[in-house]
Amino acid sequence: DDGEAWARILAAAPAWLRLLHRALFAWVLIDFARIALAALTGWPPATEEAPGEAGPWSIWLFLWAVCLSLAVVALRRTARDDAGRRPG
Questions:
Q1: How many whole angstroms separate alpha carbon 25 and alpha carbon 71?
Q2: How far, in Å, CA of 18 to CA of 41, rounded?
Q3: What predicted TM-score, i.e. pTM, was given to this entire model?
Q4: Averaged pLDDT, groups of 10, the chain, 88 residues long
Q5: Domain boundaries, the chain
Q6: Distance, CA of 7 to CA of 1 (rounded, Å)
Q7: How far apart are CA 55 and CA 49, in angstroms?
């Protein structure tokens, strides 16, 4: 089962990666609530971005790229360490 495999991988990941995973999940929930509040109530009012200012998607793309890169590095390191401990 994919859910069980992901749970095992995350459990084997370093503590900082698990913390990063939880923090990103919390941020997504908070940001979704903020967007839903703005869509339903009109508060805070939408403003046009200043010219030359990065849009909101740029921070999301940056964070996802960083998180995925860190996850790949950490999981490869964990797999390498596990392979080194196995008799064979």
A1: 14
A2: 35
A3: 0.50
A4: 73 79 79 77 61 56 76 73 63
A5: 2-85
A6: 10
A7: 7
